[in-house]
Amino acid sequence: MATSVYLSNPKVTINSIDLQDQCTSATVNYVYEQLETTAFGDTARKYGASTVTSLQNNSIEVELYQSYAASETESTIFGLVGVTCNVIVAPAAGSVSSTNPFYTLTGCYLESHTPINASLGELSTVTLTFSGGNLVKTTSA
Amino acid sequence: MDYEVISHRLSGYKFGDIIREADLGNLTIDIEFLIEAGHLSPLKPKKSAKTINTEQKD
């Protein structure tokens, strides 16, 4: 039976800071760039091969509620712009396991942040995209 | 140097825990960033209390 997974209680850790209770969405993009290996004699385009390893081009996008209180969103995120950090996202907040894999993006880069993103009558949110870095899936401690 | 955890958000630690920089080393995070963001506070070594001279004066 198929099971649907929605992130109701995920783990979201940015630079070792747990921001789960400020987060409303998280997307992990695991990408290896597509390299064409088509050659003369081929009848169809080919990409990659067992001996061709392309670069990872990963990213993690998260949406957080903005908070200017001590130790909350703004104080944690503002200093990360323009530097590299580590982001961990997992389906559930519990410990790592085969059914709760941890996706760790190491050395990713936060290019931009919107400290003020406010509209009348709405909760302020920030959308962050952490780009680059090496993505590792962990299924055991 | 030791640091006191002063927020509830530092992954793997509780508010009030005392940690060393080496404890966070494998996470490759910047201690200064965590201090500025209000998650850690450096613990200053306490000065020893002044000694009291208990010898009786003549």
Plain-language structure description:
The complex is a heterodimer of chains A (141) and B (58). Chain A is built from one helix and eight strands. In chain A, strands 1, 2, 3, 4, 5, 6, 7 and 8 form an eight-stranded antiparallel β-sheet that branches. Chain A has 141 residues and is mostly beta strands. The longest helix of chain A is centred in the middle third of the chain and has 5 residues, at 73-77. The model of chain A has no long low-confidence stretch (mean pLDDT 93). Chain A is globular and about 65 Å long. Chain A has one helix spanning 73-77, and strands at 11-14, 17-18, 23-29, 59-65, 84-90, 102-110, 125-131, 134-138. Chain B has 58 residues and is of the alpha+beta class. A three-stranded antiparallel β-sheet of chain B has the order 2-1-3. Chain B is elongated, with a radius of gyration of 18 Å. The termini of chain B are far apart. The A-B interface holds A 13, 15-19, 70-71, 75-76, 79-80, 83, 85-86, 88, 106-107 and B 6-12, 24, 27-30, 33-34, 36-39.
What is shown here, in short?
The complex is a heterodimer of chains A (141) and B (58). With 141 residues, chain A is mainly beta. Helices cover 4% and strands 34% of the residues of chain A.
Global outline of chain A: globular
Structure summary, number of beta strands of chain A:
8
Helix amount of chain A, in percent?
under 10%
Helix content percent band of chain B: 10-25%
Largest Cβ-defined interface: A-B, 18 and 18 residues
Give descriptors for this structure.
heterodimer; A: 141 residues; mainly beta; 4% helix; globular; B: 58 residues; alpha+beta; three-stranded antiparallel β-sheet; 3 strands
List the helices and strands and how they pair.
The complex is a heterodimer of chains A (141) and B (58).
Chain A: E1 11-14, E2 17-18, E3 23-29, E4 59-65, H1 73-77, E5 84-90, E6 102-110, E7 125-131, E8 134-138
Antiparallel strand pairs in A: 1-2, 1-5, 3-4, 4-7, 5-6, 6-7, 6-8
Chain B: E1 2-5, E2 18-20, H1 31-36, E3 40-42
Antiparallel strand pairs in B: 1-2, 1-3
